[in-house]
Design goal:
Elements lengths: L5 H12 L4 H10 L10 H15 L6 H8 L10 H36 L4 H19 L33 E3 L3 E2 L3 E6 L5 H14 L12 E6 L4 H15 L10 E5 L8 H11 L1 E7 L1 H4 L8 H12 L4 E7 L15 H5 L2 E2 L1
Parallel strand pairs: 3-7, 3-8, 4-5, 4-6, 6-7
Antiparallel strand pairs: 1-2
Helix pairs in contact: 1-5, 2-5, 5-6, 7-8
């Protein structure tokens, strides 16, 4: 946004001038105003941060300081909360339009290149990769925030209102005492110890509502993400386990979805989150942690904590298959960084 349009600049200034209370700040943040709205014009964002800090401290922003520090002459403020929200909404929408325009312009260039190029394996792969990147970028355009997810988005939560510190509901379970329905669970063991079979068994139990090792299971949809074997191997395992459980597969099994991936998780994360939301997935199985980190170091704290942060974004329950170290190392836990223990809620 190097050259702001007059209307956009006017809306920003009117919005900043009208910030007088914590409620005003909340309205602006709920509208989706972030630093991304001021790319190329960062002085407006810095001015917003200054005003926000003054408001939170119970002090009025200094017009003299705003003019001297940020070069801003702000107009008269409005006391109408609806008008303030309108200013913020227009700032966010204008940002989203600009972001989408840039993204689609790049996409049109790729389309033009694909039309004129002789199709090869490399040019075809490059074209579809550009589509994937464009899709992911479009998911991140500016938009109103979800107030309910404030804590997840890094915003501080305050407990100043009556009832805000009420005791949360008890832990819910996908499989009572074994698999919580909203956190990461590790299932680790030696190679060849039937970890994947156990994961398939769990998937079938949740998909059909069948007890898992005699423990009641909640019924729900399962997404099995496989970096190790293949669809035919997965289908063979499902048939063997289903036969043991007397589950009839003649008409398929609608509550299980299978995805074979080769690139690391970070390249597919947005698609996975979208699929979980679209199909109301209750359980995601990651097979396996190491292969989902292709090209990264499973013993390095930065790589492992980044991967665990990605896994935390997947909604619902996530069961992660992992290996233990060879030659007697790592027998007390998954192979690699101790931060797997720190970031996971359950390990088996």
């Amino acid at each position: 946004m190097p050259d702001l349009e007059d209307k956009m600049e006017t809306n920003i200034k009117c919005m900043l001038a009208s910030l007088r209370s914590e409620e005003d700040i909340s309205r602006v943040l709920e509208a989706g105003v972030t630093e991304a709205c001021f790319v190329g014009a960062e002085h407006y964002w810095h001015a917003f941060e200054y005003i926000r800090e003054r408001v939170r401290a119970g002090k009025k922003p200094s017009k003299t300081f705003l003019k001297r520090k940020f070069g801003l002459d702000l107009p008269l403020h409005t006391d109408d909360p609806k008008l303030l929200r309108l200013y913020a909404d227009e700032v966010v929408l204008a940002t989203a339009v600009a972001q989408a325009d840039d993204c689609l312009a790049d996409m049109l260039d790729e389309i033009s290149s694909a039309k004129s190029a002789v199709p090869t394996k490399d040019t075809t792969a490059a074209f579809y990769e550009s589509i994937r990147k464009a899709r992911n970028l479009l998911r991140d355009v500016a938009c109103p925030s979800n107030v309910a997810s404030a804590a997840l988005n890094g915003q501080s939560v305050e407990y100043t209102l009556e009832g805000s510190m009420v005791k949360p509901p008890p832990q819910r379970w996908l499989v009572k005492g074994l698999v919580p329905n909203d956190v990461r669970t590790f299932l680790y063991g030696r190679g060849g110890s039937a970890k994947s079979y156990l994961a398939v068994y769990l998937a079938l139990c949740v998909a059909t509502g069948t007890p898992f090792v005699d423990v009641p299971s909640a019924k729900g949809k399962v997404l099995y993400i496989d970096w190790e074997a293949g669809e035919e191997t997965f289908r063979a395992r499902v048939n063997r386990v289903a036969n043991t459980l007397d589950i009839d597969l003649d008409n398929g099994i609608p509550n299980i979805r299978y995805k074979r991936l080769y690139a690391p998780l970070n390249e597919h994360l947005d698609d996975i989150i979208e699929e979980c939301a679209e199909h109301d997935i209750a359980l995601v199985i990651i097979d396996s942690f190491g292969f989902s980190m292709s090209g990264q170091d499973t013993s390095a704290q930065p790589d492992v904590t980044s991967q665990m942060a990605r896994l935390a974004k997947i909604p619902g329950a996530t069961v992660i298959i992992d290996h233990i170290g060879k030659q007697g190392k790592g027998e007390d836990g998954p192979f690699g960084s101790v931060y797997k223990h720190a970031a996971a809620r359950w390990m088996w």
